[in-house]
From TrEMBL:
Keyword terms: Copper, Metal-binding, Signal
Signal peptide: 1-18
Statement: the UniProt record of this protein carries the keyword Cytoplasm: no
Region named Disordered: 70-105
Protein name as annotated: Tyrosinase copper-binding domain-containing protein
């Protein structure tokens, strides 16, 4: 079943508003697969939560029950959804099971940390004394959060390094990362490049924040299991000066936090001075990225089954974007919102934990064979090569990186782990 939540707008605002997809000058061969998705996207119904039936996760139960021609059933459905009754009845058992799954996930995280450190010596390029720790936002001090926010704003103020003949829309260093994501989208989604490409992408951002803007910390991550019932209770989204902003308002624009006034340069066919948009929908996390779902994912026996579930319609990649909505449903440009990097740090963390359960058999494992239906639906072309010698491309000004050089978070130029 194809995902209609996140990828309806692969053509970005062009597909949403009926405009043409922005073209990247000098990169037609790379962008064409994305441009070709417009026809497909325009034929698909609206995003969940915007259609008349409430979307895929919306309250369709009234119409479903009405079809039974049972007046009493219709009355009961209108008064109280059957699903809600069952949910309350099963709540104690579900809570117990979720708690058990959380404990098992915590045990796997402990194994990940022990096995990662066990591979390191007391000296060497990456060792027990210099390994960086990427922290969950809630575990960071006020000053650490302010430092991160300042570094993002710094990149948003630095002039772009993207050549004009590559993409004239890029105006700052933050835009440069969006360009890299745009031109590579057909190759790096629903393919074996998904995990390594985004790991390299995160590393480049972390380097820029530290080298260009003097950021003393490392990339933070977002715990999907925290505050699933109300994201605005999470310190990441509480709208304070130490958050990355809260939900979108009536027009979708963020109304709080340090980035509420940021105006995007990309996509170019957005309203001039386009804001960062969000539309929280916790059902994506509660239904598909709960503790049970994550435990089921993290206990997959091989990279193919692991990857297939991760990038499926109900996997954490899709639903981690969908839960925030707004810009996160515009896959090409989703990294204009800093949340993108929290989400993908979480993706990287889950992959790292899975690998660390069995380093011997998983350290160099890549899924080269799964041909997702979405690749055909969105004209992404044939599966790209995915082996240790494959070069990961970003865009100018960055050089290519071989997969083998970023497969290990503690090898090559990498030296980090998650708290």
């Amino acid at each position: 079943m194809l995902n209609k939540a996140l990828l309806l707008t692969l053509a970005a605002t062009g597909a949403v508003h009926g405009a043409a997809v922005p073209q990247l000058q000098g990169l037609d061969s790379l962008v064409k697969p994305v441009t070709d998705t417009v026809k497909t996207v325009k034929q698909i119904a609206g995003l969940p939560g915007t259609s008349t039936d409430g979307g895929r996760f919306g309250p369709k139960w009234i119409n479903d029950v009405a079809k039974r021609d049972d007046p009493e059933a219709v009355h009961q459905a209108q008064a109280e959804p059957v699903d809600d009754v069952n949910r309350r009845r099963d709540a104690p058992q579900l809570e117990s099971r979720q708690s058990n799954s959380r404990q098992k996930l915590a045990q796997m995280h402990g194994t990940y940390q022990r096995n990662t450190l066990a591979q390191l010596s007391d000296s060497g390029k990456c060792n027990k004394n210099n390994i960086a720790v990427r922290k969950e936002w809630g575990n960071m001090s006020r000053q650490e959060r302010l430092d991160y926010i300042a570094a993002v704003k710094c990149l948003q103020s630095k002039p772009s390094q993207t050549p004009q003949d590559v993409d004239k829309r890029a105006k700052n260093r933050w835009d440069d990362f969006t360009v890299a994501h745009v031109v590579n989208t057909p190759q790096i989604h629903w393919s074996g490049l998904m995990f390594p490409w985004h790991r390299n992408f995160l590393h480049k951002l972390e380097q820029e924040m530290r080298d260009v803007c003097g950021y003393p910390g490392y990339l933070p991550w977002f715990n999907y299991l925290n505050n699933q019932d109300n994201l605005e209770k999470n310190p990441l989204f509480d709208g304070s000066d130490t958050s990355i902003g809260g939900n979108g308002g009536s027009n979708g624009c963020m109304t709080s936090g340090p980035f509420k006034d940021y105006k995007m340069n990309i996509p170019e066919n957005a309203t001039p001075g386009q804001c960062i948009t969000r539309a929280f929908d916790t059902s994506y996390l509660q239904q598909n990225v709960n503790a049970d779902a994550l435990l089921d994912l993290q206990t997959k026996p091989d990279i193919r089954s692991y990857h297939q579930q991760f990038e499926s319609e109900r996997g954490p990649h899709t639903n981690g974007h969908g839960a925030i909505g707004g810009m996160q449903n515009l896959i090409l440009y989703s990294c204009q919102d800093s949340y993108f990097f929290f989400h993908h740090a979480s993706v990287d963390r889950l992959w790292g934990i899975w690998v660390a359960q069995d380093f011997q058999n998983r350290a160099n494992a890549l899924d080269q064979d799964t041909d997702f239906d979405e690749r055909h639906a969105y004209n992404f072309g044939p599966l790209p090569e995915a082996n240790l010698d494959t070069e990961l491309k970003l865009s100018p000004p960055w050089e290519n990186t071989k997969i083998r050089d970023i497969m290990s978070p503690t090898g090559g130029n990498l030296c980090y782990m998650y708290d």
